[in-house]
Write a structure and sequence with these properties.
homodimer, 404 residues, alpha/beta, six-stranded parallel beta sheet, 13 helices, 17 strands
Chain lengths: 404, 404
């Protein structure tokens, strides 16, 4: 154990950066201290006050400082984050980051960079805020008995769906409310289009199965085109619609993954994950299902997760990416059959989607849908054709799980 | 990382030992192998078949074998377990144990023994079966923002209460059923008297707050005297009765802990922890509440937890007992006020219990209860007087939490 205070260089002083500043002040035994804060604009007014002498607009003031052994990166911009994080690792500094978009895109390079430089990158805050899902997948569920990880990974979209399903609000009003509360960004498209969940799922899959899959290879569908008729349909069947990310073994040597809205019935654990909460179900051969549940959005939960990563470095903790070295790692496949509900109007869904079997069709003057079985690969290939506002697609879970 | 297969010496080949044997066989990348199995009686027939050459009735065949670097201890008897575990540590062997009674009683000596010998003892399987609560408290919630850990830690008693509340069974029938299913031992008193939960709570508290409290200093009350009238009372108020263990900070420098049945209302996370499941709520200053939920009893879930501990040793993982070295560790206190429901008949509860304030009394020819506020210290002191079959005590949560 290292007893000196860890000297931190902090990139970014938005909601999360400010919360981290507060949390480190509160945790008496944290043995950590923020030495410098890099921001784009020093003069910008901020809710949390910190000593003005801490601030700089020059990243090198942090990267060049030999006293700073640990960089915390919590900025908005994924490309800028990549430059900071990779440069810090090259200089042998530990990095703690919550930037899922950057990590999901650059994970193979980041793993390689850590191996080459010996520097460590920790990012539990990148997935599910305060829920320690990465660390548990890496350390605790670290054998090949793991079968599936499935959950609600995005607090903003879940908040919106909760307002709609539990409070009868309209979608547009719920979105506005989420933005007012600071759960959704001013541009909420990453959240509601499922990309935020996708990035987290990519990171989770690396630690669950030891395999990296790039964002563009994964079918991702969000909730932006959800319509009153879809909500009514779900309510009549006593389902909730949740935006669900999942990775699941479909055979000993193959797994699949996707992000998609799903009709969730009452018997499932994730049914009761409401508001800005996240919930993750981990299924394994021997322990059946484990469920982890907690706040998935917000400055303080994320900051407490960053603090856990910072403190882990006192004991030289690092991700070993153990499963990337496993014999018989499963291969990613999209050659699996899903059952989906597709609502449409002008878009000619029956012509676009090669259903293997159609289970139900419904047609009325203002509402039409098909329920059918289709290969995930076919959905992925036709993904661009499914973005029109008249189309909404929702998974009817069938193949991998009976209870989540 | 160590690439050689870990050679395991296994003490005990009951349900858990047999499950571990099965699980290690299934986990291709476990890099572990059971080299020897010590049992009391080699000739006893067992459900899982293992090579007869593995078995021995002589503990020294395992302890003296220099090839065996890791001992897994899953025997029934706490005193025998203590001798095996302490001897193995003295010989520098790693030990993985699931024996909560032994660990809870000997924790300070076991910590000291690990420090002196450099050998590691891991015991995540001792608490909540497959839920990684110890490791998360030690590693992830490792700062002083933690406020409370509360949960259902015993699968057998929870199964019984579930049968009663969700299926309308009578208590005696539910207990028999639990025994038939192998959730409750033939002597189920540890489970239903709350001692099993107590042991787990002691271990959890060590890793949550860095403080050891001995079993006899902790108020522990089980469900063995629960009566139809208590169940009816709870049902009328739309509560479930759950056997709850909790440790909570009551001030910056003080914490309390106890095991007691509790009236749990629908808004609480633990309300929906049914059957043989365990559920733990971890509350902190910044992340609010986290909920972990999974199978708390049964051979395979426990075995997968043992496997996680075994695999952690490939990376030399050990508990650092970090929080025992924290500045300003909180002190244990029983000087807190609780609100309790006490049902009684012949026992003169109003004379025995010094209530600070009585909130309700109810008297009818065959059912009498008091609801009142009382110091935990007063309950603890009078604990022996509360064991008569006509008395049942149940916590009405009030002071530490509003939502669990």
């Amino acid at each position: 154990m290292n007893n000196d205070k860890i000297q931190i260089g902090l990139f970014g002083f938005g909601t999360v950066g400010q919360s981290l500043y507060t949390v480190i002040g509160r945790a008496r035994n944290a043995h950590a201290e923020i030495r410098r804060i890099a921001v784009r604009d020093k003069s910008k007014p901020r809710a949390v006050e910190a000593d003005p002498a801490l601030f700089t607009e020059n990243p090198d003031d942090l990267l060049d400082d030999p006293e700073i052994s640990l960089i915390v990166e919590v900025i908005d911009n994924a490309e800028a984050a990549w430059h900071i994080v990779s440069e810090a690792l090259r200089r042998g500094k530990t990095v703690v980051s919550g930037n899922k978009a950057m990590i999901a895109r650059h994970l193979p390079e980041l793993v390689e960079l850590q191996r080459r430089t010996g520097a460590a990158l920790l990012y539990d805050a990148s997935s599910c805020g305060s829920i320690p899902v990465i660390r548990n997948l890496e350390e605790y569920y670290d054998n090949d008995l793991l079968l599936e990880v499935k959950g609600i990974l995005n607090g903003s979209s879940n908040y919106i769906l909760s307002r709609v399903f539990d409070h009868g609000e309209e979608y547009a009003a719920a979105l506005r409310r989420a933005q007012e509360l600071g759960f959704a960004e001013s541009d909420p498209s990453n959240d509601i289009e499922g990309r935020d969940s996708l990035y987290k799922l990519i990171i989770i899959t690396m630690h669950a199965l030891g395999v990296y899959v790039a964002p563009e290879e994964i079918f991702t569908y969000g909730i932006s085109t959800i319509h009153e008729s879809d909500i009514r349909y779900a309510r009549e069947k006593r389902f909730k619609i949740k935006l669900v990310a999942q990775v699941a073994k479909v055979a000993d040597d193959r797994f699949t993954m996707f992000v998609m809205p799903e009709f969730v019935d009452k018997s499932k654990y994730i049914y009761s994950v409401d508001d800005e909460y996240n919930g993750v179900v981990i299924r394994g051969e021997c322990y059946d299902r484990q469920f982890m549940f907690g706040k998935g959005a917000g400055g303080l939960p994320t900051a407490s997760s960053l603090l856990s990563d910072i403190m882990a470095r006192r004991y030289d903790y690092r991700y070993e990416y153990k499963k990337t070295r496993f014999r018989g790692r499963p291969e990613y496949t999209t050659d699996v059959l899903l059952r989906v509900y597709v609502r449409y109007a002008d878009t000619d869904i029956p012509a676009i989607l090669p259903f293997r079997e159609i289970r139900e069709t419904y047609t009325s003057p203002d509402y039409r849908y098909i329920i059918g079985d289709i290969r995930l690969a076919d959905l992925l290939e036709r993904r661009p054709l499914l973005s029109a506002p008249d189309v909404f697609l929702c998974n009817i879970p069938l193949f991998f799980t009976d209870k989540d």
